[in-house]
Amino acid sequence: MKFDPLQHYAHHILSASIYSLRPPAGGAYQSLLTKGLVCTVLDRQGQFQTELIMIPHSIKTIERHTHPGIDTFEYHVTGDFQFSIGADMVPSTIHEGAALGEVNQLVSVPQDLVHGGGFKEGGSFLSFQHYLNGVPPTTVGSSYKMSTE
Question: Are the beta carbons of 143 and 67 closer than 8 angstroms?
C-alpha cells in the first residue's frame, strides 16, 4: 500500500485526544452556500487541516461540486445521508448508541473529483484536508466550485 500523508494525518487526529487539536489562532469559521451550512476549523498543521462540517435539517442536498487544489477524506459524525463521489453513492448512517469508530470509514475525495451529498435530517462530518501546491489553508468552502457534470 502506498503511503498517503493525508490518510496518516486523518488517523492521527482520529486517535488523538481532543486536547491535542490545534485550531488556527485567528479562528476559521464560515457559513456556506447561503443555506446555513456551517464549517469550523478544528485543527491546522502546515498544509493539513480538519474541519467540522455541519448541515442543518433544512438542507437536503449539497449540489455536486469540486475543491480544486485540496485532497480530502470525509468522516461521517452524525445524521443519515449519502455521499455522492464521482459515479458512486456511499450511504452512511449512525445508529443510536454506536461508537464512531465502529461504523465509520474514511471516504477519499481527491482534488477535482466531483462530489455532493443527500441528507434526510441534516448531519455532520469531519473533513480532513491536504492543501496542495503551497496554497495556504483557509476553509474548504473557499475553494467550492459548482460542477456542470
Answer: yes
